[in-house]
Amino acid sequence: MPKTESLTVVLPEALVAQVHRAVEQGQYQSCNDAVSDALYEWSANRGVIVEDTEWLKQAAREALEDERPPVPMKEVFDRLKADTERWRAPLRPSDDACRTVPSH
Predict the structure, then answer these.
(1) Would you state the pLDDT for residue 52?
(2) What H or E segment, with its residue span, contains residue 14?
(3) DSSP secondary structure string, 33-50?
(4) At what angle do helices 31-46 and 13-24 cross, to 10 degrees?
(5) Averaged pLDDT, groups of 10, the chain, 104 residues long
(6) Which of 39, 49, 79, 95 has a 20 to 30 A CA-CA distance from 19?
(7) How many other β-carbons are positioned within 10 Å of the β-carbon of residue 16?
């Protein structure tokens, strides 16, 4: 969870009413959540939020350098569907509560 800090802000009555209305309508659990979401959206629109995407860049580089033939999308989705169905199957009473991820 990210580190947090309390901040007091003064808002025009119209904005305060919008925040309260959003909470009352169930769009947010609290005024804090509504204001935080608005600030995240504002930050994203301004390009302020920069997440660590180095892992994604590295994965893309590795994929582009991989000389194996590509796997057809239908095959990928068929594998995912089979895995999902296997994981959704109810546990038998003798099964352990913990499972390991099946390897391909």
Answers:
(1) 67
(2) helix 13-24
(3) HHHHHHHHHHHHHHT---
(4) 110
(5) 82 93 93 91 73 80 91 92 80 51 55
(6) 49
(7) 13
